[in-house]
Write a structure and sequence with these properties.
- This protein has about 425 residues and is an alpha/beta fold.
- It has one domain: pyruvate-formate lyase- activating enzyme, CATH 3.80.30.30.
- Helices cover about 35% and strands about 15% of the residues.
- The chain has 15 helices and 13 strands.
- The strands form three sheets. A six-stranded parallel β-sheet has the order 8-9-10-11-12-13. The protein has a five-stranded mixed β-sheet with strand order 2-1-3-7-6. It has a two-stranded antiparallel sheet with strand order 4-5.
- The model has no long low-confidence stretch (mean pLDDT about 95).
């Protein structure tokens, strides 16, 4: 488990009422540097916890804070009762302000998310190449303190994994077209393991399935505990990896470049499929040298089956400057972002203009190809315009590429055999609790 000294620990009454769940909380508490007693709460007390006890006080972009500390830990259970709306209404009547957000996580209702990427109703349709699928969740929040991230301050962790897997099994059965399931794109689940004892049971659950895979996306150094789990090759670990400057100075509690590669080597040695995403690529001073060295380490120590690339994006240049230490950024790339305000105004793939992003991708691609000419390399969450620009060099296109976490990106695949935007059909009909 990561070293952590939370200012407070909360546990929902449903957690403490079940011996299995209580033991998971106790496992984390035993690893803390000081003795702490969890504050047991009921749903109706949430407005008071938020308003008077500062549950969300430090849920802010960490690069904007002078003093970033470990988050509050809050242990909760998914309530598979279909009662989310009624629970929300009751809590709003008691003073819960909808502007506080995070309702589904705090209300125990955010287990399985239908991500309708590039389908009707997706606000980013045509501006982000990502595949529609079910995303699954057990945590919300993070310990890593990346300066650009706003997920500090509070870490919500769900502990009723056995009940969770029962409902997940029904979801998997209803959606035979989806072969992989990405866990927690707004958390880093290995951070509290193995003391919490939640991720291991989920890995072993997938180990009982046929041709279905769990994907864990992480920046962690913490993988030794994965040895010995009965994963049966059905868990894929994908590292977001970055160069030395970025990993050390902008992502301070993550694994360094070397530590992430070593963690991937350990997982690979234990029989897990490993992958990498250079994501987000922040063009710091000396980014080319950092990239070259990171790629060298990846292929010297490990054998990934897929690599993805994604520049830092999803915000305008002023927001980026607010989040990142400007003295670390490459002057040419920063100037290009400043000059491109109008050019990128209508895309999510900002602040860097297309020519700058393409330049960065080409450097990474060249370094990768020197060491692994045939490995599939894709762009992650980029737009269709960049895919058209880079398609020839990548050797694939938006409907065929294999990526780190796509719903059909099974181990060893080099291209898709189906159209990912046409094959995806939601089929839960509101009959599986915990879907949203």
């Amino acid at each position: 488990m990561y070293p952590i000294d939370p200012p407070a620990v909360y546990a929902h009454e449903s957690v403490m009422a079940d011996p299995r769940y209580r033991r998971r909380v106790e496992g984390v508490l035993a690893a803390l540097p000081r003795v702490m007693t969890p504050i047991v709460y009921k749903d109706e007390e949430l407005p008071t916890l938020i308003r008077d006890h500062g549950l969300f006080t430090n849920r802010r972009t960490m690069g904007t804070m002078a003093d970033v500390r470990d988050p509050i830990l809050l242990f909760n259970t998914f309530r598979f009762d279909g009662d989310f709306e009624a629970r929300r209404q009751r809590l709003e009547a008691l003073g819960y302000d909808p502007k506080w957000g995070h309702q589904r996580d705090l209300f125990g209702a955010a287990a399985f998310h239908w991500a309708n990427y590039n389908l009707d109703g997706d606000p980013a349709r045509k501006d982000k190449v990502c595949r529609p699928c079910w995303r699954i969740h057990l945590q919300q929040g993070c310990l890593h303190r990346c300066k650009y991230c706003g997920l500090g301050g509070l870490l919500i962790s769900m502990v009723n994994v056995e009940e969770y897997c029962q409902h997940l099994g029904r979801l998997i059965e209803r959606h035979p077209w989806q072969l992989t399931y990405l866990l927690d794109d707004d958390a880093d689940p290995p951070c509290l393991e193995p003391e919490q004892g939640v991720l291991g049971p989920l890995i072993e659950y997938f180990g009982t399935l046929k041709d279905r895979y769990l994907i864990i996306h992480t920046k962690t150094w913490n993988t030794e505990w994965l040895r010995g789990l009965k994963h049966n090759g059905n868990t894929i670990l994908v590292w977001s990896i970055s160069g030395a400057t970025q990993s050390g100075l902008i992502e301070p509690r993550t694994g360094t470049t070397e530590q992430r590669v070593e963690a991937a080597r350990v997982a690979q040695e234990a029989g897990y499929q490993i992958r990498y995403k250079f994501k987000p690529i922040i063009p710091v001073q000396g980014w080319r040298d950092d990239a070259t060295e990171a790629v060298r380490l990846v292929f010297e120590k490990t054998r990934p089956d897929v690599i993805s690339l994604c520049c830092f994006m999803w915000m305008d240049v002023d927001d980026m400057k607010r989040r990142l230490p400007l003295e670390l950024l490459d002057a040419e790339c920063l100037q290009a972002a400043e000059a491109a305000r109008e050019e990128v105004a209508e895309t999510r793939a900002k602040p860097f203009p297309p020519r700058t992003r393409a330049m960065i991708y080409r450097h990474y691609l060249d370094e990768i190809r020197k060491r692994a000419p045939d490995i599939p390399v894709s762009l992650s969450t980029e737009n269709f315009a960049m895919w058209r620009r880079m398609a020839k060099e990548l050797g694939t296109k938006p409907t065929r590429y294999v990526c780190g976490c796509g719903p059909q990106s099974v181990p060893g695949a080099t291209t898709l055999t189906c159209h990912p935007f046409k094959i995806a059909v939601r089929n839960d009909n509101g009959e599986i609790p915990g879907t949203y």
